[in-house]
Amino acid sequence: MAKIRSKKNSSKKEVIIEKASKLFLEKGFGAASMRDLAEHVGVEAASLYNHIQSKSEILQAICFKVANDFISHMEAVQSSPEPALKKLELIIRFHIRMMMEQFEFVYISDHEWRHLPEPYLSNFLNQRRNYRRSLSDLIARGIERNEMKDLDPHVAVLTILSAISGIESWHRSRKSVSRETLENNMVKYLIGGLKK
User: Fold this and answer.
1) What is residue 113's three-state secondary structure?
2) Which segment of 37-41, 95-99, 132-136, 163-167 scores lowest on mean pLDDT?
3) Residue environment code for 59-79, b if the CB has 16+ CB neighbours within 10 A, otherwise e
4) What is the pTM (predicted TM-score) of this model?
5) 36 and 69 co-located in one domain
6) I want to staple 66 with a disulfide (CB 3.0 to 4.6 A). Which of 62, 109, 135, 185 is the partner?
7) Residue numbers of the domain that contains 154
8) What is the pLDDT of residues 50-61, one digit of tens each?
């Protein structure tokens, strides 16, 4: 029977979660089974249960890892002395890099969160709402300080997040544009659209 090979500095559980993220991206959370995951990892299904109890546990790990990464970055940026527009740029760049470097995790967090069981679903949605509210408040402060155009902050947040989620097509188009070009152009358009 094959063993789960852990990568350097990664536990076996982390390896399973990473493989699961690729499987969930390919098949969708609902269609992927633990048997599929075992096959994907290259072990017997029973071996998975030594490390993971269920698909839901994997989904929770993915969704909350992504949420915590975004929240931690937001908190670090918010505590910096930078002007609001610069803070927003740093947050946008982080979102873009997450979409490029941890695409499977971010995609699953954005598209499969509905499958989270309670109380995790409510907790996740609350974190998501609070994060978007913080972004909206940051834009509102930028408008008040005359750094940004007088736009509806809520609409600005939706526009920014929707544009960044479009990076999914970059992944599917064989990445014809370099990461640096994509990031710099997106920042130019998004920040340029808000800058006064």
Assistant:
1) helix
2) 37-41
3) bbbbbbbbbebbbebbeebee
4) 0.91
5) no
6) 109
7) 60-194
8) 889 999 999 999
